[in-house]
Write a structure and sequence with these properties.
By secondary structure, the protein is α/β, with parallel strands linked by helices. Helices cover about 35% and strands about 20% of the residues. A hairpin with a 5-residue loop joins strand 9 and strand 10 (about 230-240).
């Protein structure tokens, strides 16, 4: 469970201790993984008392410390299929047979990303995928990451010929991979974030190493682009080794940089000022909740930052797109308490009306800019503001926003499918955990 979330997770007892405990009780138990938010699990009784004493009603202690952290896996049932959202207990370490063509390749250590990290060993045509490690911004998670890397290499008698890191030079996983490559020395290769999403999906679905390029839509929060841009809504033509960008959402400033990832109102303001004269928007929609909120913010400072390109990088992030529209509808506009909260709230709000409003998207434009297709959301933004002003049910607006994203994505993929002469299409990235998009 999480704040503002409309779904509950549950687990059945899977150890003798669970059964003994539940036999003494008549009610369900509320469980956690034994950790504070964004931190790794506690591994001994002293640490548990120290860190969790203020939030736990009871402790069930044991005389065995945890030697190897392994969080609970999280899965979701969608269309009678199980989708793994967090791969850990029961799945890791997991040895996956890779498709045809990988058998005689080098042994590769793939370091993983910065957030929701896991790593992978490639050996003898098999991918050995680690458990969910977590966010490496946390010092304890970093230590566990390094510990698990050593454990896996010992357990599987693994010696890397090559280390693969994310293209983002500031990722701690990238920096540690570079350090390992220098110390050993190993060969080092940097991989574009969204290209890695595509390759993982191709391998998961059994596409051979020599498969011709496929078409992909990869939507997520953020990833470093091939020329230093911040990507996140990518239409790509890719095989395992090459990747070509064919389209994306209109790039919008992220005023303040990292704070824009935590404060959705910043993204709403950036969208409005990119497409419109904000003074006109303020005049026409002054009574809207989001406009009144923006009046309390240092907009002159943000405008100056955007105009001067000071700590306001351009990004095509689909995650920030969701943040902006959630803020427009008054969904946690000030600050999120966990990653993806604004998008999840928008999805939850849309659910009640989504299936009643099929084929009813708002307007948008797909523009060709120097042979790259760019989705322009100006008409969508204006329509949402007008519907808010007319006090249309916000659930209807949220549902139509989702239908608009689906319509634009499908329309551009169909156009690109004809252009590239391929009908193999991949959908990947964290945004596609949104059940409305998959349905």
């Amino acid at each position: 469970m999480a704040p503002t979330e409309d779904k509950l997770g549950f687990m059945l007892p899977y150890t003798p201790l669970h059964y003994l405990l539940l036999q003494q009780l008549s009610n369900p138990l509320v469980m956690t993984s034994g950790n504070l938010s964004d931190q790794p699990q506690c591994v001994d009784n002293h640490e548990a008392r120290q860190k969790l004493g203020t939030i736990a009603d009871y402790f069930l202690m044991h005389d065995r410390d945890i030697v190897n952290r392994l969080d609970d896996s999280v899965m979701r049932l969608l269309d009678n299929k199980m989708h793994v959202l967090r791969r850990a207990r029961g799945f890791s370490p997991e040895v996956l047979q890779l498709p045809e063509g990988f058998n005689n390749k080098q042994q590769i250590l793939a370091m993983g990303g910065e957030l929701k990290n896991s790593f992978c060993l490639l050996k003898q045509g098999m991918a050995i995928v680690s458990q969910h490690i977590g966010d490496l911004e946390n010092a304890a998670a970093q230590l566990d990451y390094r510990y698990q890397l050593k454990c896996y290499q010992q357990l599987f008698d693994f010696k890397a010929d090559l280390i693969a890191v994310d293209l983002h030079a500031d990722y701690l996983s990238t920096q540690y991979g570079q350090q390992l490559a220098e110390d050993q020395p190993f060969s080092l290769v940097s991989v574009q974030h969204h290209h890695a999403h595509i390759a993982a999906c191709m391998a998961e679905h059994g596409l051979a190493l020599d498969t011709p390029s496929v078409l992909a839509a990869v939507f997520d929060g953020l990833g470093m682009g091939l020329s230093g841009e911040l990507w996140g809504s990518e239409f790509l033509f890719s095989d395992y080794s090459t990747c070509q960008r064919l389209g994306h959402f209109q790039e919008i400033s992220m005023p303040g940089g990292v704070p824009a990832m935590r404060e959705p109102w910043r993204n709403a303001y950036a969208q409005l000022t990119h497409y419109f004269n904000y003074a006109d928007i303020h005049k026409e929609f002054a009574d809207l909740e989001i406009i009144r909120l923006l009046e309390t913010k240092p907009l002159a400072t943000l405008t100056s930052m955007i105009d001067k390109k000071l700590n306001s990088p351009l990004s095509s992030s689909c995650g920030r797109w969701f943040d902006a529209f959630a803020a427009l509808l008054g969904l946690c506009p000030e600050q999120i308490s966990y990653e993806g909260q604004a998008a999840i709230m928008l999805e939850n709000l849309a659910t009640t009306e989504f299936f009643k409003l099929e084929d009813n998207p708002y307007s948008y434009e797909i523009e060709n800019k120097n042979e790259i297709f760019v989705i322009n959301w100006q008409a969508l933004l204006l329509a949402v503001l007008q519907d808010l002003q007319q006090q249309i049910d916000k659930a209807v607006i949220a549902a139509r926003i989702h239908h608009t994203l689906i319509s634009a994505t499908v329309k551009l993929l169909m156009k690109l499918s004809i252009q590239t002469e391929t009908n193999t299409i991949i959908l990947s990235g964290g945004v596609f955990q949104n059940r409305l998009l998959l349905n």
